[in-house]
Amino acid sequence: FRLALIQLHVSAVKSDNLQRACGLVREASAKGAKVVALPECFNSPYGTQYFKEYAEKIPGESTQKLSEVAKECSIYLVGGRSIPEEDGGKLYNTCTVFGPDGAMLAKHRKVHLFDINVPGKIQFKESETLSPGNSFSMFETPYCKVGLGICYDMRFAEMAQIYGQKGCQLLIYPGAFNLTTGPAHWELLQRGRAVDNQVYVATVSPARDEKASYVAWGHSTVVNPWGEVIAKAGTEETVIYTDIDLKKLAEIRQQIPILSQKRCDLYGIEMKK
Fold first, then answer.
1. Which of these, 143, 134, 202, 141, lies nearest to 171 by C-alpha position?
2. Locate the CN hydrolase domain: which residues (predicted)?
């Protein structure tokens, strides 16, 4: 099946972001994409100072638009971090997924908050405004089972291993790495998660905006279960496409059967919730 990743240029005007995102979703569908993903923070600038201002409840304006365009195009739509979600007085970094009938199939709240300090390069603390999610998020398609994470979640190998154990063959991470962590780890982490679990891994970033207060790395990418980069964007607004070949995935798992060779008598990882 064909997967499309929309590397959107994000402005400060929510309505413009929504309109342009929906237009690119329609374009991707017209080119045969069955699963389409938007980037983290696709409808608002990224930054703790913006989260409260742009927050919505779910369902709300942004998720309604995503539901409508998913149904119109009859696709599976992964809504990036569709919005900073407000719920019960708390804010979450939340990704929603809609099916071809417009129904919401999953709602992933970012589990691991991005609190880092690299002296002289970047300091960021999502926990100043956001609360963490407390659950794994998976959804079924006629093609395969898909696991979700958001950006920093990708650094935690155990989460991806749980998804692999639960039968996911594609992991999608809307993300917005920056100019420090992007060149160092963006592709490396994707290839690691893909090889470790013999799955496809897709990451979808906002386009780079040098004038933004937080500059995203860009380079939305798809990696196959052999660890090969099979599609990669530059830094500009674009849509990249790749065909997810589940026959190739099955062949790789047969050739190197790590899933059946794990020493579960010696170690294990479990999902607690």
1. 202
2. 1-246
Options 3.60.110.10, 2.20.28.10, 3.20.20.480, 3.30.1660.10; CATH for 2-260 is 3.60.110.10
pLDDT at 273 over 80: no
- SS3 of 28-71: the string is HHHCCCCEEECCCCCCCCCCHHHHHHHCECCCCHHHHHHHHHHH
Distance CA 167, CA 86 (A): 31
Give residue for tokens 């607690």.
272
Residue 117 pLDDT? 86
Q: Give the residue numbers marked as catalytic.
A: 40, 110, 151
Task: Give the pLDDT band of residue 207 (cuts 50, 70, 90).
Answer: very high
Around 25, how many Cα atoms within 13 Å sit in the side-chain half-sphere?
30
What φ, ψ does residue 264 adopt, rounded to 5°? -65, -15
Number of neighbours of residue 255 by Cβ within 10 angstroms: 9
Q: How far is CA 56 from CA 14, 159, 205, 244, in A?
A: 11, 27, 21, 33
Beta-carbon count within 10 A of 97 CB:
26
SS3 110: coil
CB-CB neighbours of 264 under 10 Å: 8
Q: Is the peptide bond before 39 cis (omega within 30 degrees of 0)?
A: no
